[in-house]
Amino acid sequence: MAPALVETTQNAPVPVTKGTGDYKEAFVSGPKNYSAVAEEKGTEKHAPASYPKYLPVWDPEKKYPPLEPFTHYEHGKDADPTFKELFRDATNIDDLTAPIGTEVQGVELAKLTKEGKDQLALFVAQRKVVAFRNQSFADLPIADALEYGDYFGRHHIHPTSGAPQGHPEVHLVHRGVDDTTAATFFETRTNSIIWHSDVTYEEQPPGTTFLYILDGPKSGGDTLFLSQAEAYNRLSPEFKKRLHGLKALHSGYEQAQLSKDRGGVVRREPVTSIHPVVRTHPATGEKALYVNPQFTRHIIGFKKEESEYLLKFLYDHMAFGQDFQVRVRWQPGTVVVWDNRVTAHSPVLDWQDGQRRHVARITPQAEKPEETPFDSGTSNGH
């Protein structure tokens, strides 16, 4: 079947052919691979889960209706750009690289005022990803953590992941103790890198996003991030001009099918959405590439070979750009906050000694991606 070549509404079923990007999951999760006994009580080699309230459940009977459009308010536009409230108690602020990534010590996210939260949204949009160390976020009641995230947008309920009992808004990335699926994965793959922005198949994908560690291996399991804004900046003015006006189809069908194949759940029927290849951030005005090999399937209006040729170039450009990437190493008490509108990221599956990796994500949705007119007179095209 041919890929869709016209715009469709989010909820319309669209036949999707395999695109240049190949949907890929390194962390095999789902009820078939989950051992409640091992997670709750531990094993001979490994302790029980540190946060049992965050252990995943999958309810195959629970279904959710299609998402409805909503009006998103971008709090970063209200922020004081001096960040005085955000960093009032900071003891150390260290930029991990020049274009992307900052590590912050001394700031307690859970205690931020409204003004501090506004500044958080803007600072994260500017630095793309920020690692806050020594946080108590995971110790909060889950309802309180969700109330905190609600300030930044409507919570996204993931269609296929496990979630804590009674809190479907929390997306869990969980690899249990004594998990040996990595060996199987690497029988057919040379690496585990999966560059993506989260759930771009939604009509209103996420903005300011929170990921916090519950359990992790002593080494390994880091997360890679890249700046899609800097990836756009590196392109020539003529190439940027050609990208403007282009749109691409993003699909959630492959993710849903893989969940079914693994005996998992599909809590909401899969959708596709069409987004601009270049989007503009509402608070900074910065332009960024908005394609990824995990969910982007096709450039609208291009023939198959043309679309694949352009997308492959963009994906290679993203992957090879280590000078606009950063690697975040997890430590106990770490909360990583990033802006999904101007970044892509990938987990790293590089430990095979059976240690648990358990992280929770709060995923506020943002505005529908929009592109502002191209302006060749500015370095970022805005």
**How many strands?**
17
Helix-and-strand structural type: alpha+beta
List the uncertain runs: 1-15
> What strand order characterises the main sheet?
2-3-4-15-7-17-6
Could you give a short account of the major beta sheet?
7 strands, mixed
Look at the structure and give the mean pLDDT: 92
The percentage helix is 10-25%
- 3D shape: globular
Intertermini distance: 38 Å
CA radius of gyration:
20 Å
N-to-C order of helices and strands: HEEEHEHEEHEEHHEHEEEEHEEEE
Count, helices: 8
Strand proportion: 15-25%
What labels describe this entry?
single chain; 382 residues; alpha+beta; seven-stranded mixed β-sheet; 8 helices; 17 strands; globular; disordered N terminus
Fold topology:
Elements: H1 36-41, E1 56-57, E2 92-95, E3 102-105, H2 114-127, E4 129-132, H3 142-150, E5 163-164, E6 170-175, H4 181-188, E7 208-215, E8 223-227, H5 228-233, H6 237-243, E9 247-251, H7 253-261, E10 272-276, E11 278-280, E12 287-289, E13 296-299, H8 304-320, E14 325-328, E15 335-339, E16 343-347, E17 357-362
Parallel strand pairs: 3-4
Antiparallel strand pairs: 1-5, 2-3, 4-15, 6-17, 7-15, 7-17, 8-14, 8-16, 9-10, 9-13, 11-12
